[in-house]
Structure formats: structure tokens, C-alpha cells
Amino acid sequence: MLENKEVQIRDPFILPVASEGKYYMYGSTDTNIWGKGTGFNVYVGDDLQRWEGPYPVFRPDSDFFSDTNFWAPEVYAYGDRYYMFATFRRKDNELLGTAVLAADSPLGPFKPHSEGPVTPESWSSLDGTLFIDEQGSPWMVFCHEWQQVADGEVCAMRLSDDLKGALGEPVVLFRASEAPWTTPYVAKRYPDQDNYVTDGPFLFRSSSNQLFMLWAGFIENKYALGIAKSSSGRITGPWVHEEQPLYRNDGGHGMIFRTLDGQLKLTIHAPNQTPDERPLFLNISDNGDAITLING
């Protein structure tokens, strides 16, 4: 068994499985996620403190479209299967894209479901997350990478019901600089542009059915987590940003889930430096109109 302090992971994503009394924790699990990709692992536990594993849930075949930067897997029960949304760097144009994989079990093995990334081929796109709208239609919400557009974007794209592809062009929901809490990111590789980062969007409906989005950026070059609310209650917004970040202590890429006993939790990775990143679990409060941190 491993404790949280022993698990190196970025972008943690929790899938609770009530029938098993278990939590499945996925994330970017390569020791050096900035280099060659080996696949994704999962950790399994029942208390969010101790974990069995890691167990391999995805290993690429030799003809897979990527061999570098395997990032941010999110796993959802959808229909009668489990679907993984994950980011990879393409071999053909060296741009990032989010693809969909599928398996019959949370333990995998996950196999390619979409024909490569479903995000636009000419875009550098990452951190795709699944959202089901009020009509039951699936969408992918993802980031158009700041390295390509300077002012990182969060975009939404309608998916086919089988999750194999896009049904339309992406819609830009907002740009990072629109949030009052974020500041320019100083990057050595891009010194001549004003960089604003968007990372890790995640959608959550409050107890009063209001639609919130978590997303990560930077404050004075430290990783932080912000929150925005759709004033229409729909994925297309418009999106209104909170004045202050939800978490600013060099952690982010968060998601919200309900524990097996009904409590709301936020998980992020912190700090943001490899190889020190660890999963962090925080209590949150939902009063219907706002999402707030109870501790941390």
C-alpha cells in the first residue's frame, strides 16, 4: 500500500465506483511526463489515503499516433463502457491533441476509441474533459494551448454520441487573461509574447444546478486554480470569473467528486514541480451559488 505522499502523479482524476466501495485514481503517471510516454497507471483505494498499485491501464501499441507527453487521463462511465479522455503529442505534426480511449473495466486495458485526437489537427490542444449538457449531448471542453496562441483559451466542441469524433467546430468560451486573478506567465522559450496559461478545465453543477468550471493558470509564475460560472447555465456561457483563485499555493489541475459517503472533495496536484507533485484532497462547500474551499 502507498500513501499519498509516496505517489508521484500530476492531474489526478478520481472515479468513485460505489458498487465496489473503491476509488480509482488516474493521472499523468510517467516519472518524466515531459519526455517519452510509456502509458497510464491507476491506483485503487477505499479511503483516499492509501492506494494499491500502480496498475497499468494503458500501454500504446507500436502504431499508436503518439510516443511523447502522455497527459491528464480522465475516465468516465458512459453507456455500458468506460471512456478515457487523454492528451498526447502527435508524431505527425508534434502538436498536442486529446483522444478518446475505451475499456470494459476501470482497470482497462484501455484501447484507442477515436481515430487519433478529436481536437483540431492544426491546433495544439490539451486537457480534454467530458461534459454532458441538459439535452444529454456530449461535449469536450479543452484548452487551446498558450504556446500556440499566447493567451490560452478554453474551448468547447460538440461530440458524436459515440464519442468518436466532433460534430462541429470548437467554440471559444474564454481566454485566460479575462480572469482577474491570473498574471502573465514568464517562459524562457516565449520571452517576446504575453503568455497567459489555461490548463485542466473541469465542469461541475452545484446543488442549485448552476454550472461551474475549474481551470488552472499562473499567478506570478506559481500554479493556481480558478473558478468561473456560466451565467446562462449552459456550456456556451457567458462565463464569469471569480475575483480570487480557489487555490494559489502552487497547485492545480483540479476536479470535484463526491465521496462514497456523500462528501464533496477537490483533488489537485501540488506542488507543480517534477518529481515532487503529489495528490492533494481538499474539502469544499457548495451553497448552490458558490464553490468555496473549507481547508487548504
UniProtKB/TrEMBL annotation:
Give the top-rank taxon of the lineage listed in the UniProt record for this protein. Answer: Bacteria
What Gene3D superfamilies has UniProt attached to this entry? Glycosyl hydrolase domain, family 43
Which UniProt keywords are listed? Carbohydrate metabolism, Glycosidase, Hydrolase, Polysaccharide degradation, Xylan degradation
InterPro entries in alphabetical order: Glyco_hydro_43, Glyco_hydro_beta-prop_sf, Glycosyl_Hydrlase_43_Enz
> Which Pfam families does its entry note?
Glyco_hydro_43
User: Can you tell me which family this protein belongs to?
Assistant: Belongs to the glycosyl hydrolase 43 family.
UniProt cross-references to PANTHER family, sorted A to Z: ENDO-1,4-BETA-XYLANASE, PUTATIVE (AFU_ORTHOLOGUE AFUA_2G04480)-RELATED
What is this protein's record name?
Answer: Family 43 glycosylhydrolase
What taxonomic lineage is listed for the species of origin?
A: Bacteria, Bacillati, Bacillota, Bacilli, Bacillales
